Amino acid sequence: MSQLPSSFRDPAGYVFEQDGELFRQLLPPGAASFERFTESGLAQRLMEDGKIVAFSRHTSNAEGFVLHLNRLPYISYPYEWCFSQLRDAGILTLKLMLEALDKGMILKDATAFNVAFQRCHPIFLDHTSFELYQEGTPWRAYRQFVMHFLAPLLLMQKVDLRCLELLRENVDGIPLDFASRLLPWHTWLQINPLIHIHLHALMEQRYSLSRKPSHKTALPKARLLALIHELHTLLSSLKPPKQCTLWADYYSKTSYLDTSFAFKRQAVREFCEKHKGRSAVDLGANCGLFSQIAAEFFELVLAADFDGRAVEELYRIGRGLDTNLQPVLLDLNNPSPDLGVLNEERSSFFSRTKADIVMGLALIHHLRITGNWSIGQIVALFSKLAPCALVEFIPLDDIQVQQLTRGREQIYQDWTLENLCAAFQTQYAFCKVIPIPESGRSLIELAS
Fold first, then answer.
1. What is the pLDDT of residue 252?
2. Spans in the chain with pLDDT lower than 70
3. Does residue 128 fall inside a structural domain?
4. Are 94 and 230 contained in the same domain?
5. Which residues are within 8 A (CB) of 106 and not within 5 positions of it... i.e. 6 or more apart?
6. CATH assignment of the domain containing 370
7. What is the pTM of this model?
8. Which pairing describes strands 357-360 and 277-283: parallel, antiparallel, or unpaired?
9. Backbone phi, then psi, for 249, in 5-degree steps?
10. Nearest to 183 by CA among 166, 207, 204, 208
11. Could you write out the DSSP letters of every residue in 132-144?
12. Is residue 203 a contact partner of residue 180, using CB atoms and an 8 Å limit?
């Protein structure tokens, strides 16, 4: 048995792994609440609706009893989501809160890490977050909800999409006083930021400095329901900002001829069909044109890009078409590291990500030139992720590469098709070059 490092905070239970399967140990402090959760029919209904990870009672032991959990294909973290993913995860949390109250229960936690994505659909992870509700009890997780969902969403909308990165530095949620300082002054004149962020932060500071014992205020259920409905309406009304980013409309500016681009699409399709399997990773996916092709042949396609608006478009497409895409916000120059207590609570992107194939189309010249990666580092990136790869080589004399080098071509004289293939062959036994007609570019097919 191996307890997950991320599962240690809850006295009601913990998650562990054994023989490749996931289990949840229920401990005595959570037994009564869990019995109500199941006997009320709430658990079954949420599983049928796909709102919570499915489970079954497995066995009993000296500590209590054990649940067998369905394993999700991939776990991404809130700082790897786009605006709409974070918003939809918050809306799911509020919907669960309403359904729990209807059955005499309440959510004791409202962290964004209790939600994951199954392709493009949010799903709740923590079965021990549901506890018995007592009339007049306030929602203890309200502050946590604001720090994990509302504060970052308002910062992304009113300041900059890149404010999401603050969640990576603040895994317990963005502090309210910090969020209040970052939000523009005019948000003091807007009712929702004023109440939930600015005044909330002032009250928190006031009571943290006070030596008087905290006064417990009763909150009637009707007022609690009104608060949840208000938050639900607020989150549902939030729209992604129309922020201009560098790569969101990349394909509208591509220098490919129609025939060349059609050839590239067909080559990608043939590669994916040849290696079809369980999972694929598309690095630099942009709006997901080639990720959608891969989704026809793989059960899960991680479509990764560092541009927030591009990932937003990926998510919109995935939700609309209900495909096998799962968007991931990823900066390859600074991928998600190990974080949290002892750097073990949240694992790095590379330790979580293993696939059957990996694609890097119109990507690696950016790593070499913009990121100053070595060719060896580029090879290591692909070999870490999958035994088969498809990458696109764009030479120095290409107009788009020339825009990147801007007279520094001498620094990148090693950037040749021959050098790149030789480097890849140190990790991949099979290496095939596929020239893209009328473009000067090539695809490189690799297999171990």
1. 55
2. 209-216, 243-255
3. yes
4. yes
5. 97, 100, 130, 131, 132, 133, 137, 139
6. 3.40.50.150
7. 0.94
8. parallel
9. -115, 40
10. 166
11. E--TB---TTHHH
12. no
| Rounded Cα–Cα distance for residues 365 and 395 (Å) | 8
What is the signed CA dihedral for 354, 88, 102, 37, rounded to 10 degrees? 10
Domains contained in the chain, number: 3
- pLDDT for res 134: 94
pLDDT, position 89:
98
Same domain, 16 and 161: no
Largest CA distance in the chain: 77
Q: Count CB atoms within 10 A of the CB of residue 161.
A: 21
With the CA atoms of 156, 161, 166 and 167 taken in that order, what torsion angle do they form, in degrees rounded to the nearest 10?
80
Which one-letter amino acid corresponds to residue 146?
V
Do 287 and 303 touch, CB atoms closer than 8 A?
A: no
Q: What pLDDT does 192 receive?
A: 95
Give the C-alpha distances (Å, rounded to integers) separating 271 from 12, 219, 327, 426: 48, 59, 21, 21
Tokens of 27: 């401990």
Whether residue 126 sits in one domain with residue 52: no
Domain that holds residue 380: 250-447
Residues 379 and 357: their CA atoms lie apart, in Å, by: 14
- Tokens 């990773």 belong to 281
Are residues 106 and 56 part of one domain? no
The mean predicted confidence, pLDDT, of the chain is 93
Residues in the chain: 448
